[in-house]
Write a structure and sequence with these properties.
30% helix
């Protein structure tokens, strides 16, 4: 069996607040650098992007697609995230849904149906006045081989279990289609153990993807399968039957909504502190944004640190460029960081191989001892992290030296 590393959720250049470099050519280029084997197409609902997909992708015997005029085995599969905004049971709901389709013919059927509901040209991630269960119905009517996955299920504003607009139970959202929802996506602010605490998710696969808006963020979260001769059919069955090798995760504290807080006042609160303050900001007295950890505590029927022995394992990482940035003491977008990153990728095969597999002694030889030690500390989870809150990314320190710059996703923006 060979590891098959996938990132099936991110966005194209046709989505808001997304890099203009988010096109198929850059997906392919960065997929190689990261060590990804299968990428989503993203945004298949957008008419212009869908036209590009039809022109540039070639169907393969295994059911996946390849980019024309490329020689490396990086595959693509049709995918899109859709924002469902509607009212149900007397409350406004904002749920993001990831759809993975078996082929572009199925996508065409889905797009026809969605085009009757709203304007697909307005954004790569369309906002539609459609119930999540209706979205599942449309996708599954187009093909029973579609995968319908609630995206980043804990994000406060736009998710299945979000504190501001979600539900308490998956069945309340999807009703008769609940048994067709085979997986949920963790999102950056949660990891598998947090989701293991909910008995209602016991039969659902837990997947992780990047939700990237720029090429260098591809693979910051990913899902790994052990597949011999990978195909769409095998991918579908693996997710349906919860046969995942492992997931690659953000440290959830680094996510933008891990803890509660009020960004305007720069107030970060643990769930316990929020309860003590009766849900109000201690500076201005307004309601704080309730984060992922607090919401998990609210819905969980198992204690914190519950270990699900039958669940697939996971590995938590910090992106390689951020490690280099901290060690060199310069910004992640500088030439010095880019040069050292390219050196490590060239000699270490790809980013995942460097971060997960390469021996520390080997990294010392091809790079520096400090970068090698930084990667070692990440593998051992010896980090100092200030949790993210209210839309602000958390900050990670790989080394304890206070003089060294902290690293975190917010440094990339």
């Amino acid at each position: 069996m060979k590891e098959f590393i996938t990132d099936l959720h991110f966005h194209s250049k046709y989505s808001r607040a997304v890099s203009p470099k988010m096109d198929l050519e850059h997906f392919y280029q960065w997929g190689l650098k990261k060590g990804l084997n299968l990428l989503g197409t993203s945004d298949f609902t957008h008419p212009q992007w869908f036209s590009e997909l039809k022109k540039k992708l070639v169907r393969q015997k295994n059911g996946f697609y390849r980019l024309k005029n490329t020689d490396q085995e990086i595959y693509f599969v049709p995918s899109a995230e859709i924002s469902c905004i509607y009212k149900k049971n007397g409350q406004g709901r904002r749920i993001h849904i990831l759809i993975i389709a078996p082929d572009l013919e199925t996508v065409k059927k889905i797009n026809v149906q969605l085009g009757w509901i709203g304007n697909l040209k307005s954004d790569g991630r369309p906002i539609l006045g459609c119930e999540a269960k209706e979205m599942a119905k449309i996708a599954l009517k187009a093909s029973k081989k579609c995968l319908v996955i609630p995206a980043h299920i804990w994000t406060p504003w736009f998710s299945l279990f979000g504190s501001r607009s979600g539900f308490d139970r998956l069945e309340e959202c999807f009703e008769e289609y609940s048994n067709k929802i085979y997986a949920i996506e963790t999102g950056l602010s949660s990891d598998p153990p947090m989701n293991w605490r909910l008995k209602q998710l016991d039969k659902k696969a837990i997947v992780s993807f990047s939700d990237a808006h720029s090429p260098n963020n591809l693979g910051r979260e990913a899902t790994v399968f052990a597949l011999k001769n990978p195909s769409y059919e095998k991918l579908f069955k693996a997710i349906k039957n919860n046969q995942i090798a492992y997931t690659i995760e953000f440290f959830p504290q680094e996510g933008k909504y891990h803890w509660d807080g009020h960004r305007k006042c720069q107030v970060r609160l643990s769930p316990q502190e929020t309860k003590k303050n009766k849900g109000l900001c201690p500076k201005c007295g307004r309601k704080v944004t309730v984060g992922v950890m607090n919401r998990v505590d609210e819905l969980a029927d198992r204690k914190e640190n519950y270990q699900a022995l039958s669940r697939p394992p996971f590995k938590s990482l910090v992106p390689l460029k951020q490690i280099i940035s901290q060690v060199l003491g310069i910004g992640p977008k500088t030439k010095g960081v880019a040069d050292e990153y390219e050196n490590l990728i060239k000699q270490g095969k790809n980013e995942f191989n460097v971060l997960l597999n390469l021996k520390i002694e080997k990294i010392e030889k091809i790079s520096t001892s400090k970068i090698a030690q930084g990667i070692k500390r990440i593998r051992e989870k010896k980090l100092n992290i200030k949790p993210g809150f209210d839309g602000q990314y958390g900050k990670v320190k790989v080394f304890a030296d206070k003089k060294e710059a902290s690293i975190g996703q917010e440094s990339l923006f």
